[in-house]
Design goal:
single chain, 514 residues, alpha/beta, Rossmann fold, 2 domains, 6-stranded mixed β-sheet, 17 helices, 27% strand
Length: 514
């Protein structure tokens, strides 16, 4: 008799130095179902899926496919069993084309020659069938994050996988791309493919999943049918306490102008048009101003321009009355800019260094951390322990943990703790809650509001519409490198915001300058 479950992970245990990541976890996946795996950052979700994909070997437990025990020593074994995985941080070769990335490791050859035509045809058919449109000849380094994800999905389909693992697939996508991905996942399930879907976004679980298994601190809390539960119950299971799903904040009391941007223009690296064109706005002490927009409309370049990562071709940037338009990144940082970057790996952390060293990257020259050019190790460790405790940064070996080995969410919490603690007059927070769970999001939002209430200026850049509407005091919408509208979150709607983001509406208070 055929087993009810296509995949069973029974009593899995996986340990790392100083931490039990998976403690006796059992997970059973039915044929043709979308099964969500929910848990806080560092709860062991990615580790469990990495065991299934053969990236890790468990210390105990067994994996069964169709009722038969299987041994998965590496990803090639997983592929042979038709198990595919889209990782949270994509595994793509930047300088290769999309097509080359898709067929890499599964090349069709004839007499030793690569059959690229055949491969292209197969990929094109998959692309058309699932509406996963990508430019097969574009280099991966030149395409958007959403397109990179489509490349990863096509890579799985090219290998004829029937068990699809999605690790935090929506963490980097726009609301529109998320809707498209949900449709694609429903289509896969209808075809009889079985999906394991790691996330901590409750809306998505309620929208697409059939069942949900909840992990907390490496243990399995339980498996529930989605139709019998709700968001509040899931968040309580995940965090172990009731969570405020709404942002708690009083009205803003804006004071002096902290950041004054006039006519800022930044050239684009990929096209002849400017990435940012003639942008002017102000951020005052005691307010949270949010830059909203669909990914790729100049928000990234604007932040690079403000922080010094890109040079502006025109315009001025004034911080606390001081012109910093031509200052170096270091000088801007010292002048009073804290920056939570969009790409935590590229601009936020030195991944192969320890957590404690990462927490003093901008401040190690201060007298509290050095004397006559020598680092005061005890002071650094004491400070690191303070941030780890305050921001609940979970790491196997505390301050000496190698940052690369931490979960994405805990890396993010470390950056946020470091930047907020610097107490700068201006905090630029770019997608600060990306890849965080509801408990951590609640905490980060309360920290942003606390910064505002302490008289700091906060510039938030977010793609999450809920975050834009709930956290900000003013919303500036960017479309094709320009600010096309200024909205008040108290009086606008998500629909109206969407129209501005799509470029269908312009103007509004403080919008395009006539």
């Amino acid at each position: 008799m055929q087993s009810e479950y296509i995949i069973e992970m029974l009593n899995i245990r996986k340990e790392f130095p100083g931490i039990v990541a998976n403690d006796d976890i059992t997970l059973q996946l039915r044929r043709g179902e979308i099964h969500a795996l929910l848990g806080e950052n560092g709860a062991g979700k990615s580790t469990l899926m990495s065991v299934l994909f053969g990236l890790y070997q468990p210390e105990a437990g067994e994996i069964r496919k169709n009722g038969q025990v299987v041994k998965i020593n590496n990803p090639n074994d997983a592929t042979a069993l038709h198990i595919g995985m889209v990782h949270q941080h994509f595994k793509l070769v930047d300088v290769f084309t999309v097509l080359d990335n898709i067929i890499l490791g599964a090349e069709d050859t004839k007499l030793g020659f690569l059959q690229k035509k055949v491969a292209r045809q197969k990929v094109q058919e998959l692309s058309d069938k699932y509406k996963l449109y990508v430019d097969l000849d574009a280099k991966v380094e030149d395409i958007t994050v959403g397109m990179q994800q489509r490349t990863e999905i096509l890579k799985m389909l090219y290998r004829d996988n029937e068990i699809l693992i999605f690790d935090e697939p929506t963490a980097v996508l726009t609301p529109q791309e998320i809707d498209e991905l949900m449709e694609i996942m429903r289509g896969f399930a209808k075809e009889g493919k079985s999906i394991l879907f790691i996330t901590h976004k409750l809306n998505e679980i309620m929208a697409v999943a059939d069942r949900c298994t909840v992990l907390r601190k490496g243990k399995c809390v339980g498996t529930v049918n989605i139709k019998d539960t709700n968001k509040q119950e899931l968040s309580n299971m995940m965090v172990g306490r009731p969570v405020q799903l709404e942002v708690q904040k009083g009205p803003a009391h804006p004071e002096d102008v902290i950041l004054d941007v006039k006519g800022l223009t930044i050239p684009s690296k990929t096209s002849k048009k400017n990435a940012v064109h003639d942008v002017s706005f102000q951020v005052r002490a005691g307010e949270i101003v949010c830059i909203a927009g669909i990914d790729g409309n100049g928000q990234t370049e604007l932040v690079y321009g403000l922080t010094g990562l890109e040079k502006a071709s025109a315009g001025t940037i004034t911080l606390c009355g001081q012109d910093i338009s031509h200052a170096s990144i270091h000088k801007r940082s010292q002048a009073g800019i804290s920056h939570i970057p969009e790409d935590r790996h590229k601009h936020g952390l030195v991944l192969d260094d320890t957590l404690e060293n990462n927490l003093v990257l901008q401040t190690f020259q201060e007298p509290r951390f050095q004397k006559m050019g020598f680092i005061k190790r005890d002071a650094v460790r004491q400070y690191a322990n303070q941030i780890i405790g305050q921001y609940d940064v979970r790491s196997g070996q505390g301050p000496v943990t190698v940052t690369r080995s931490m979960s994405g969410g805990n890396q993010q919490k470390a950056i946020i703790g470091r930047e907020i603690d610097r107490g700068c007059p201006l905090l630029i927070a770019v997608q600060p809650t990306r890849g965080l769970d509801v408990g951590a999001i609640e905490y980060i939002h309360s920290q942003l509001v606390a910064q505002r209430d302490a008289g700091k200026a906060v510039l938030l850049v977010s793609l999450e519409l809920d975050e834009v509407m709930n956290v900000s005091d003013r919303i500036l919408v960017m479309y094709e490198g320009e600010i096309v509208g200024e909205l008040d979150p108290k009086t606008t709607t998500v629909q109206e915001l969407g129209l501005y983001m799509a470029g269908a509406k312009r103007g509004g208070k403080g919008g395009t300058q006539e």
